[in-house]
Amino acid sequence: MTASSxxxxxxxxxxxxxxxxxxxxxxxxxxxxVAWNLQRLGAEPLFVGAVGTDELGERVCAAMASAGLDLRxxxxxxxxxxxxxxxxxxxxxxxxxxLPNQAYDRVDPGSLAAFLTQPLPMLYHGSLALRAEPSxxxxxxxxxRADRRFVDVNLRPPWYQADSVLEMLRGADYVKLNRDExxxxxxxxxxGNRVRDLIExxxxxxxxxxxxxxxxxxxxxxxxDRFDAGAPAVTDLRDPVGAGDxxxxxxxxxILEAWPWETTLxxxxxxxxxxxxxxxxxxTDPSFYAxxxxxxxx
Length: 298
Hints:
Layout: E1 9-12, E2 16-19, E3 25-28, H1 30-40, E4 46-52, H2 55-67, E5 74-77, E6 83-90, E7 93-98, E8 120-125, H3 135-145, E9 146-152, H4 162-169, E10 174-178, H5 179-185, H6 191-202, E11 207-211, E12 217-221, E13 226-229, H7 243-257, H8 261-275, H9 286-293
Parallel strand pairs: 1-4, 1-8, 2-6, 4-5, 8-9, 9-10, 10-11
Antiparallel strand pairs: 2-3, 6-7, 11-12, 12-13
Organism: Thioalkalivibrio nitratireducens (strain DSM 14787 / UNIQEM 213 / ALEN2)
Protein name: Fructokinase
InterPro entries: Carboh/pur_kinase_PfkB_CS, PfkB_Carbo_kinase, PfkB_dom, Ribokinase-like
């Protein structure tokens, strides 16, 4: 739970490793990154996902324990490997092969009963972990009990169809996506029209959060309000990987803490810019997160 709100978010989805040609494996996955950030920023999220009975699964458990993340929602499945994305280089540019039949596809809904006896004020999930059963049913079970649902769209070919994504978004309270994803899922001549199309077709209850990379982001509410802000300059850019997950993390925190939308947007953009100075999406250095929170109590 957050220090002041008393609300504990549930984060559902993939934990995986990016596997590089040199043999290195870097821990990540959008939901896992969000859970990690929220934990370090003072919330106490419950991460619900799955790993295999392999060395990479052991690494996930060790990393979660070291960060103080609750391990009770992490299932260990003996019949699928811990998630991996195979990264290759083509003409110097990284290409990603999201492997099928991974442990995060195998979250058992029958093992979630212990979490369904408690209030579920906020559920976060992405779209990748809903590509297969039984994880799709597990997420739907949690969504049916959640007071609020935050969906982080991550369109990863070939693991989605636009119609299925729109159906997944239906009735969500909050949806975050980037400009390219918005254009793929909606109709309209500009971003404002496309967001309104998404809100109406998917029956979004509260707000759509639209990110535009180095241009910044905007929050469009169901009531018709719009808040826009530019991205802060990054003076020591190292790696933009994880910026979107960082932005989502602070947006969720702002919702839980009932910050004004303008405040949430500014703080989320600032934290995303800070993460761009890291090598990777997260860090084990607690001072990084403490520095980001300076002034947030105001």
